[in-house]
Amino acid sequence: MSQPKSIKQLNEENYLAIDFYLSKSCNKSCHYCTAWTLEMRNLDVDMDFLSRTLEYFSPYKARIQLLGGEPGLIKNLDEVVAEIKKHKNLVPSVLSNSFVRKRYPHMLEDPEILYQEHLVLDFYEDKIEKLGNFDFFEENDLNNYNIIIMTPNYFKYREKYDLSIVDHKNTQFKAFNSRSPNWTETKQAPEFDRRMCAAFPKVPVVDFELQKIRHCSKKVIKGSRQYAVTKENIDKMMNFELFRFEEYCKRCTEDIEKRSHDQILRIMEAGAVI
Protein backbone atom coordinates (compact mmCIF):
# COMPACT_ATOMS: atom_id res chain seq x y z
CA MET A 1 0.00 0.00 0.00
CA SER A 2 1.34 3.44 -0.90
CA GLN A 3 2.08 6.02 1.80
CA PRO A 4 -0.94 8.31 2.47
CA LYS A 5 -0.42 11.77 1.01
CA SER A 6 -0.39 14.97 3.04
CA ILE A 7 -2.52 17.99 2.13
CA LYS A 8 0.60 19.66 0.71
CA GLN A 9 1.30 16.67 -1.53
CA LEU A 10 -2.30 16.52 -2.73
CA ASN A 11 -2.19 20.20 -3.64
CA GLU A 12 1.09 19.73 -5.48
CA GLU A 13 -0.48 16.87 -7.44
CA ASN A 14 -3.45 19.09 -8.37
CA TYR A 15 -6.13 17.25 -6.42
CA LEU A 16 -9.27 19.38 -6.51
CA ALA A 17 -11.07 19.99 -3.21
CA ILE A 18 -14.83 19.39 -3.07
CA ASP A 19 -16.92 20.23 0.01
CA PHE A 20 -19.61 17.71 0.92
CA TYR A 21 -22.04 19.54 3.22
CA LEU A 22 -23.47 16.41 4.87
CA SER A 23 -25.75 18.38 7.18
CA LYS A 24 -25.89 22.00 8.26
CA SER A 25 -26.58 20.91 11.85
CA CYS A 26 -23.93 21.92 14.37
CA ASN A 27 -23.41 21.67 18.12
CA LYS A 28 -21.70 25.09 18.19
CA SER A 29 -22.57 28.59 16.99
CA CYS A 30 -19.35 30.28 15.90
CA HIS A 31 -19.91 34.02 15.52
CA TYR A 32 -18.23 34.14 12.08
CA CYS A 33 -20.00 31.18 10.51
CA THR A 34 -23.51 31.09 9.03
CA ALA A 35 -23.39 27.57 7.54
CA TRP A 36 -25.04 25.94 10.53
CA THR A 37 -28.22 25.43 12.49
CA LEU A 38 -28.62 24.20 16.06
CA GLU A 39 -31.63 22.21 14.84
CA MET A 40 -30.56 18.56 14.59
CA ARG A 41 -31.55 17.40 11.11
CA ASN A 42 -30.28 15.28 8.21
CA LEU A 43 -27.91 13.33 10.47
CA ASP A 44 -28.16 10.09 8.45
CA VAL A 45 -26.41 10.48 5.11
CA ASP A 46 -28.37 9.11 2.14
CA MET A 47 -25.94 6.36 1.11
CA ASP A 48 -27.55 5.85 -2.31
CA PHE A 49 -27.06 9.53 -3.14
CA LEU A 50 -23.52 9.41 -1.74
CA SER A 51 -22.55 6.29 -3.71
CA ARG A 52 -23.96 7.69 -6.94
CA THR A 53 -22.21 11.03 -6.42
CA LEU A 54 -18.86 9.39 -5.66
CA GLU A 55 -19.13 7.33 -8.84
CA TYR A 56 -19.44 10.56 -10.80
CA PHE A 57 -16.30 11.93 -9.12
CA SER A 58 -14.31 8.69 -9.27
CA PRO A 59 -12.45 9.37 -12.58
CA TYR A 60 -10.97 12.55 -11.09
CA LYS A 61 -8.34 13.19 -8.42
CA ALA A 62 -10.28 14.89 -5.64
CA ARG A 63 -10.14 15.53 -1.92
CA ILE A 64 -13.66 14.95 -0.58
CA GLN A 65 -14.06 17.29 2.40
CA LEU A 66 -16.77 16.22 4.85
CA LEU A 67 -18.21 19.12 6.80
CA GLY A 68 -21.36 21.17 7.15
CA GLY A 69 -22.39 21.79 9.97
CA GLU A 70 -20.44 19.43 12.18
CA PRO A 71 -19.64 16.03 10.63
CA GLY A 72 -19.18 14.48 14.08
CA LEU A 73 -22.97 14.61 14.45
CA ILE A 74 -23.46 12.33 11.45
CA LYS A 75 -24.65 8.92 12.67
CA ASN A 76 -23.18 6.94 9.77
CA LEU A 77 -19.93 8.87 9.31
CA ASP A 78 -17.87 5.65 9.36
CA GLU A 79 -19.92 4.34 6.42
CA VAL A 80 -19.45 7.61 4.54
CA VAL A 81 -15.66 7.49 4.91
CA ALA A 82 -15.54 3.79 3.97
CA GLU A 83 -17.52 4.54 0.80
CA ILE A 84 -15.06 7.27 -0.23
CA LYS A 85 -12.13 4.90 0.36
CA LYS A 86 -13.50 2.51 -2.27
CA HIS A 87 -12.38 4.96 -4.96
CA LYS A 88 -8.63 5.11 -5.55
CA ASN A 89 -8.71 8.70 -6.89
CA LEU A 90 -10.69 10.08 -3.94
CA VAL A 91 -9.25 11.05 -0.56
CA PRO A 92 -11.52 11.46 2.50
CA SER A 93 -11.03 14.65 4.52
CA VAL A 94 -12.95 15.61 7.67
CA LEU A 95 -13.26 19.15 9.05
CA SER A 96 -14.53 19.21 12.63
CA ASN A 97 -14.81 21.53 15.62
CA SER A 98 -13.30 18.63 17.66
CA PHE A 99 -16.55 16.67 18.08
CA VAL A 100 -15.19 14.00 15.70
CA ARG A 101 -12.22 13.58 18.06
CA LYS A 102 -14.73 12.94 20.86
CA ARG A 103 -17.18 10.70 18.97
CA TYR A 104 -15.00 9.03 16.32
CA PRO A 105 -11.46 9.10 17.85
CA HIS A 106 -10.32 6.17 15.69
CA MET A 107 -10.43 8.42 12.63
CA LEU A 108 -7.47 10.37 14.00
CA GLU A 109 -5.37 7.18 13.96
CA ASP A 110 -6.00 6.56 10.26
CA PRO A 111 -3.53 8.56 8.10
CA GLU A 112 -5.66 7.85 5.02
CA ILE A 113 -8.21 10.28 6.51
CA LEU A 114 -7.14 13.92 6.43
CA TYR A 115 -8.46 15.23 9.74
CA GLN A 116 -8.61 19.03 10.08
CA GLU A 117 -9.71 20.46 13.42
CA HIS A 118 -11.10 23.95 13.88
CA LEU A 119 -10.54 23.95 17.64
CA VAL A 120 -10.25 27.69 18.33
CA LEU A 121 -13.38 29.82 18.45
CA ASP A 122 -11.44 33.07 18.83
CA PHE A 123 -8.67 34.93 20.62
CA TYR A 124 -9.45 37.27 23.51
CA GLU A 125 -7.41 39.46 25.81
CA ASP A 126 -7.56 36.97 28.66
CA LYS A 127 -7.96 33.61 26.90
CA ILE A 128 -7.99 31.52 23.74
CA GLU A 129 -11.53 30.19 23.64
CA LYS A 130 -11.70 26.64 22.33
CA LEU A 131 -14.63 24.65 20.96
CA GLY A 132 -13.55 21.44 22.68
CA ASN A 133 -11.52 20.36 25.70
CA PHE A 134 -8.48 19.20 23.72
CA ASP A 135 -4.89 20.23 23.14
CA PHE A 136 -3.59 21.36 19.76
CA PHE A 137 -2.04 18.73 17.54
CA GLU A 138 1.72 18.57 17.62
CA GLU A 139 3.61 17.89 14.40
CA ASN A 140 2.62 14.41 13.21
CA ASP A 141 2.50 12.02 10.25
CA LEU A 142 -1.08 10.93 10.89
CA ASN A 143 -2.55 13.70 8.72
CA ASN A 144 -4.09 15.47 11.73
CA TYR A 145 -4.12 19.25 11.28
CA ASN A 146 -4.90 22.32 13.37
CA ILE A 147 -6.91 25.05 11.63
CA ILE A 148 -6.72 28.56 13.04
CA ILE A 149 -8.99 31.26 11.61
CA MET A 150 -7.19 34.60 11.43
CA THR A 151 -10.00 36.70 12.85
CA PRO A 152 -9.53 40.39 13.74
CA ASN A 153 -9.03 39.23 17.35
CA TYR A 154 -6.26 36.86 16.24
CA PHE A 155 -4.21 39.79 14.95
CA LYS A 156 -5.13 41.93 17.96
CA TYR A 157 -4.22 39.45 20.70
CA ARG A 158 -1.87 36.81 19.25
CA GLU A 159 1.23 38.42 20.76
CA LYS A 160 -0.17 37.67 24.22
CA TYR A 161 0.14 33.92 23.68
CA ASP A 162 2.90 31.43 23.00
CA LEU A 163 1.82 29.89 19.71
CA SER A 164 5.04 27.96 19.15
CA ILE A 165 3.11 24.73 19.75
CA VAL A 166 1.28 25.27 16.44
CA ASP A 167 4.31 26.50 14.51
CA HIS A 168 4.75 23.40 12.34
CA LYS A 169 3.60 21.68 9.13
CA ASN A 170 0.36 20.40 10.67
CA THR A 171 -1.15 23.82 11.29
CA GLN A 172 -3.10 25.78 8.70
CA PHE A 173 -3.87 29.46 9.18
CA LYS A 174 -7.03 30.37 7.27
CA ALA A 175 -8.18 33.81 6.16
CA PHE A 176 -11.22 35.37 7.81
CA ASN A 177 -14.10 35.52 5.34
CA SER A 178 -17.34 37.19 4.43
CA ARG A 179 -19.54 34.63 6.17
CA SER A 180 -18.93 36.64 9.31
CA PRO A 181 -21.63 39.16 10.25
CA ASN A 182 -18.89 41.65 11.19
CA TRP A 183 -17.04 41.35 7.89
CA THR A 184 -15.98 44.82 6.73
CA GLU A 185 -13.45 44.14 3.96
CA THR A 186 -14.15 45.99 0.71
CA LYS A 187 -10.89 45.40 -1.15
CA GLN A 188 -11.26 42.99 -4.06
CA ALA A 189 -8.84 40.57 -5.63
CA PRO A 190 -7.97 41.40 -9.27
CA GLU A 191 -10.76 40.53 -11.69
CA PHE A 192 -8.65 37.87 -13.40
CA ASP A 193 -8.21 36.04 -10.08
CA ARG A 194 -11.93 36.30 -9.36
CA ARG A 195 -12.70 34.90 -12.81
CA MET A 196 -10.32 32.02 -12.17
CA CYS A 197 -12.08 31.39 -8.88
CA ALA A 198 -15.50 31.56 -10.54
CA ALA A 199 -14.45 28.89 -13.03
CA PHE A 200 -13.65 26.56 -10.15
CA PRO A 201 -14.05 28.01 -6.64
CA LYS A 202 -11.62 27.02 -3.93
CA VAL A 203 -14.29 24.64 -2.68
CA PRO A 204 -17.48 24.05 -4.67
CA VAL A 205 -20.16 22.33 -2.64
CA VAL A 206 -22.28 19.23 -2.89
CA ASP A 207 -25.18 20.07 -0.58
CA PHE A 208 -26.64 16.85 0.82
CA GLU A 209 -29.72 18.56 2.25
CA LEU A 210 -30.70 19.92 -1.17
CA GLN A 211 -28.90 17.19 -3.15
CA LYS A 212 -27.54 19.92 -5.39
CA ILE A 213 -24.19 21.31 -6.49
CA ARG A 214 -23.65 24.80 -5.07
CA HIS A 215 -21.24 27.01 -6.97
CA CYS A 216 -19.40 28.52 -4.02
CA SER A 217 -19.04 27.56 -0.35
CA LYS A 218 -18.67 31.23 0.62
CA LYS A 219 -22.19 31.94 -0.68
CA VAL A 220 -23.85 28.70 0.38
CA ILE A 221 -26.26 30.46 2.73
CA LYS A 222 -26.83 33.76 0.96
CA GLY A 223 -27.29 31.89 -2.27
CA SER A 224 -25.13 30.77 -5.13
CA ARG A 225 -26.13 29.13 -8.38
CA GLN A 226 -27.36 25.55 -8.01
CA TYR A 227 -27.01 22.59 -10.37
CA ALA A 228 -28.38 19.06 -10.39
CA VAL A 229 -25.94 16.36 -9.29
CA THR A 230 -25.57 14.44 -12.54
CA LYS A 231 -22.63 12.78 -14.26
CA GLU A 232 -22.80 15.39 -17.01
CA ASN A 233 -22.61 18.28 -14.54
CA ILE A 234 -19.80 16.68 -12.50
CA ASP A 235 -17.80 16.09 -15.69
CA LYS A 236 -18.34 19.71 -16.71
CA MET A 237 -17.39 20.96 -13.25
CA MET A 238 -14.18 18.93 -13.00
CA ASN A 239 -13.16 20.09 -16.48
CA PHE A 240 -13.86 23.76 -15.65
CA GLU A 241 -16.87 23.99 -17.97
CA LEU A 242 -19.84 24.25 -15.56
CA PHE A 243 -19.41 27.47 -13.60
CA ARG A 244 -19.37 31.04 -14.84
CA PHE A 245 -18.55 34.52 -13.54
CA GLU A 246 -21.71 35.43 -11.62
CA GLU A 247 -23.00 38.73 -10.26
CA TYR A 248 -21.87 37.76 -6.76
CA CYS A 249 -18.38 37.09 -8.18
CA LYS A 250 -18.30 40.71 -9.38
CA ARG A 251 -19.00 41.90 -5.81
CA CYS A 252 -16.79 39.34 -4.05
CA THR A 253 -14.28 40.57 -1.45
CA GLU A 254 -12.97 37.14 -0.43
CA ASP A 255 -9.29 36.36 -0.14
CA ILE A 256 -8.48 34.28 -3.25
CA GLU A 257 -5.57 31.87 -3.21
CA LYS A 258 -3.32 31.66 -6.24
CA ARG A 259 -3.77 28.71 -8.58
CA SER A 260 -1.07 26.36 -9.77
CA HIS A 261 0.34 27.03 -13.24
CA ASP A 262 -1.18 23.76 -14.47
CA GLN A 263 -4.65 24.64 -13.22
CA ILE A 264 -4.48 28.13 -14.71
CA LEU A 265 -3.64 26.65 -18.10
CA ARG A 266 -6.46 24.09 -17.86
CA ILE A 267 -9.01 26.76 -16.92
CA MET A 268 -7.80 29.02 -19.72
CA GLU A 269 -8.01 26.17 -22.24
CA ALA A 270 -11.60 25.49 -21.16
CA GLY A 271 -12.44 29.12 -21.90
CA ALA A 272 -14.00 29.49 -18.46
CA VAL A 273 -12.52 32.88 -17.55
CA ILE A 274 -14.39 34.76 -20.28
Could you say which overall geometry the principal axes of the C-alpha atoms support? globular
Mean pLDDT: 89
Q: First CA to last CA: what distance?
A: 43 Å
How much strand content do the residues show?
Answer: 15-25%
Q: Considering the protein shown, what is the CATH homologous superfamily of the domain at 7-182?
A: Aldolase class I
- Given helix and strand content, the structural type is alpha/beta
Number of helices: 9
* CATH architecture designation of the domain at 7-182: Alpha-Beta Barrel
Low-confidence stretches: none
Radius of gyration: 18 Å
How much helical structure, as a percent, in the residues? Answer: 10-25%
Helix-strand pattern: HEHEHEHEEEEHEHEEEHHH
**Which fold name is given in CATH as the topology of the domain at 7-182?**
TIM Barrel
The biggest beta sheet reads:
9 strands, mixed
Spatially, the strands of the biggest sheet line up as 8-7-4-3-2-1-9-10-11
**What is the CATH level 1 assignment of the domain at 7-182?**
Alpha Beta
Number of beta-strand segments: 11
Describe the structure.
It is a single chain. This protein is an alpha/beta fold and 274 residues long. The chain has a domain of 176 residues: TIM Barrel (Alpha-Beta Barrel), CATH 3.20.20. The chain is 25% helix and 20% strand. The chain is built from nine helices and eleven strands. It has a nine-stranded mixed sheet with strand order 8-7-4-3-2-1-9-10-11. The chain has a two-stranded antiparallel ribbon with strand order 5-6. A hairpin with a 4-residue loop joins strand 5 and strand 6. Helix 2 packs across helix 7. It is globular and about 50 Å long. The chain starts with 6 loop residues before the first helix and ends in a 5-residue tail after the last helix. The model has no long low-confidence stretch (mean pLDDT 89).
